[in-house]
Structure to design on (447 residues):
């Protein structure tokens, strides 16, 4: 568990970062926008609005995730956090003189804030791990293959965890409890449900931090509400079909945002079309059949990033690491996600949504369903350009994990969540790992 000193440190770190950003904004406002400066109460009100915006954006981008996110992730979060906060505040201040203000001042304030915040984050991150050294952790597993797979993932986070032992759930329960006593964190990976429940109760009693690899039923229960039958509480998983009001607002958001984005980025799409088209004189738009709600097929549109003969052998396959089928132009537009812009026309037509499960190819989905029958449940919602799987997963995320991420989205679907995911998508563009392909000797993400 995080120590008391660690909790105090996190609270102090939040206060320091907030104060530095607020002071930089206040000084910038007084220097560049004197027409928006008031007496004490007015300035206090403006600062409170800015602080509320900053808190709002830091929650969206997880700006204070010391100990749970990598350093580069926290820095990237703060860059987007400050961009969004200053953009909102710009329009708030513009309401005072009833005219658009020069953006130069806000740009300088943003750059000064970044110059102050990044060194602070570097210092605070080091101090955090001084207060909270790596926790001694054990892995209790049901399948050895899964344990080895996740051991390599956990080992990448050496600052947070130090694995002391890997234990099969077939070992004697007393021995496993003895190992738990000597650890600070426990990872449960595919552990037999009855054994896991008993050990989980023991961890709770001993105040051990526990991490549980989700199961399909576990994801449903996690998103469930509470229903009282007489005086008995019961978990009530949500219906995968949102109410009429949510569906209506979601569709209106799809139409408005996709139309505005198409108009705003039309010039970029035209330039991209021309470059792709004239690079090898083949069609610039790539069409492919994908799955959406109810298992229906639809044609997805993307800018072509591969050679025209990429699948002339008739074998459907995902992109692999260092795939030689990708053209030089294609590598750039995939890295920057420009190749996905034509999907906005899919959203406008209604075959896709801005936010939803990643649309899978029917041939590949069929292979996944042979091993994971529940994989078909992802089509209980309309396919989307972005979503849980696209933001928290990667292109090569294993099908089982992709299923859990998409079901988590479906079970917690709301307009507010869609808004957060759309804003978080901006950050994903700058994460190289999110477009990493599958292994070179594979055709799907099955391992």
């Amino acid at each position: 568990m995080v120590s008391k000193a660690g909790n105090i440190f996190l609270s102090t770190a939040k206060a320091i970062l907030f104060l530095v950003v607020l002071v930089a904004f206040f000084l910038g406002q007084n220097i560049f926008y004197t027409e928006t400066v008031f007496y004490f109460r007015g300035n206090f009100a403006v600062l409170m609005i800015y602080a509320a915006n900053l808190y709002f954006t830091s929650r969206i981008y997880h700006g204070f995730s010391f100990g749970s996110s990598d350093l580069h992730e926290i820095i990237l979060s703060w860059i987007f956090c400050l961009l969004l906060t200053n953009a909102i505040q710009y329009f708030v201040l513009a309401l005072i003189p009833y005219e658009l203000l020069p953006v130069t001042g806000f740009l300088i304030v943003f750059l000064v804030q970044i110059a102050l915040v990044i060194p602070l984050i570097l210092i605070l991150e080091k101090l955090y791990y001084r207060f909270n050294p790596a926790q001694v952790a054990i892995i209790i597993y049901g399948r050895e293959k899964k344990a080895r797979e996740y051991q390599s993932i956990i080992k990448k986070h050496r600052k947070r965890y130090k694995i002391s032992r890997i234990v099969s759930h077939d070992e004697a329960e007393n021995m496993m409890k003895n190992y738990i006593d000597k650890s600070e964190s426990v990872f449960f990976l595919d552990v037999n449900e009855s054994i896991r429940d008993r050990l989980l109760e023991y961890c709770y009693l001993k105040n051990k931090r526990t991490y549980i690899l989700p199961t399909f039923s576990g994801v449903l229960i996690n998103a469930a509400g509470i229903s009282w039958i007489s005086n008995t509480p019961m978990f009530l998983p949500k219906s995968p079909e949102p109410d009429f009001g949510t569906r209506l607002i979601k569709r209106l958001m799809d139409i408005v945002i996709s139309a505005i984005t198409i108009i705003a980025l039309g010039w970029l799409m035209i330039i991209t079309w021309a470059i792709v088209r004239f690079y090898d004189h083949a069609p610039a738009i790539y069409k492919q059949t994908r799955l959406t709600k109810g298992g229906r097929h639809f044609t997805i549109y993307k800018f072509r990033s591969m050679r025209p003969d990429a699948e002339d052998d008739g074998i459907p396959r995902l992109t692999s690491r260092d795939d030689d089928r990708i053209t030089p132009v294609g590598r750039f537009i995939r890295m920057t996600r420009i190749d996905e812009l034509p999907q906005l026309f899919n959203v406008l037509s209604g075959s896709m949504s801005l936010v939803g499960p990643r649309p899978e190819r029917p041939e590949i989905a069929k292979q996944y369903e042979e091993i994971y029958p529940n994989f078909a449940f992802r089509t209980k919602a309309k396919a989307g350009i972005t979503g849980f799987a696209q933001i928290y997963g990667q292109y090569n995320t294993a099908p089982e994990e992709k299923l859990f991420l998409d079901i988590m989205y479906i079970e917690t679907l709301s307009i507010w969540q869609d808004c957060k995911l759309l804003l978080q998508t901006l950050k994903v563009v700058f994460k190289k790992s999110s477009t990493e392909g599958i292994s070179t000797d594979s055709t799907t993400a099955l391992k």
Observations:
- The beta strands are 135-141, 161-168, 185-189, 209-212, 225-229, 232-236, 285-291, 297-303, 353-355, 384-386.
- The two ends are 33 Å apart (CA to CA).
- Residues 135-213 form a domain with the Rossmann fold fold (CATH 3.40.50.2300).
- The chain has three domains: 4-131, 135-213, 244-435.
